[in-house]
Amino acid sequence: MDSCNKGRQCDVKNRPGIRINDTGQLSLDFLVGISIFVTTIILSATMISGLLVGLQTKHIDYDAVAYRTGVILAEDPGEPNTQFNYLTITEADQWEFIGFYQKDKIRRLGLTLYKSTPRVFSEQKTVSFFNRSTFPDLSEYRERIIAGDYPYNFNISLKIPKTGQTFFLGDPFNPNSTHGYIRRIILVKSQTMAEVDMNNYYSLIPDSGNFSVDITYNKLLNQSRGPQYWIEPPKEDISITLNNINSVRNQSSPTNVRLKNIRITFDGKLLSGTDVTGVDLPYRNFVARIDGNDYTFIWPDGTAGSPLDIAQYINITFPAGYFIPPSAYADVTLIRMTIRYEFEPNTVNLSSTNNHYEYVPGNMGLTPPTLTPAVLEVRVW
Hints:
single chain; six-stranded mixed sheet; 18% helix
């Protein structure tokens, strides 16, 4: 008789035909089942989080895009852009001078001077950014100021309260629509000008018919101060006005002061190490405004026709980028440009020992760079 029939506890393990695995190991079926279950939970959690993205507030997402765009414009100089301690520069080194036909070289449109000067805008970059001549298609702006592939609409404005200037760029904007918004207070670096009073150069004993304005780069790129206080001839407008011209007229002359020519010469050290002095360089033509009329001067022989009578003033505003050519093949820190005004000697009382003006901060009549507050607003939707 089986021992289980005798009232004793029956040991199932010992029953014939029954085996129980008591080694503590899980069966293969259980492992497969639990793996499928865990994988399903993970995939479900991932898919649910993605589904919830559509339920989030789009305004927050737009704000993030607007913020990133504001950072690019207000804290980045764009690409390409020279470093602040450059020794040479070409037009291809600065995105604002590249122009329409080489616009593919422009990778990013930042408005600051350098990476070390966040929120200090270059006046020339600001003008280039808003005038649409390089990028007539707004999509080309979008690619260079907005991160990501989504085709966001955008509207950017810059307001300068002191001057009353307002710049706009972008798509038509509905203020009641859902959109992202960022507002940044920035500074715009103004460019310089020299107002030279010629009365200070009258000589009782004249022995010269020339007057010159010298622009010496190493006196303007002051490494002890930040770039926001520099004067950078290759990158900025340079404006020179000779005022009160009639004050140096030779009193015995039957005419006003007579201008024969205006020449530009270059002194410096070429990249080859060669020193050059008084070299005429192939610049673009420039315009001189004389007593209210504009005259085009053609390198290297000046304006055509008879000498010009001058009673009041001569103004020349060299546009930003005009002085890049010599800077492309010479050491910038060793460059001096000379604007030479050649008059008929018998019409002026000028001395050869007091007939030049140095375009340098601190000199009488020169307006140094100033930083003007402005408001940048970016809207994205």
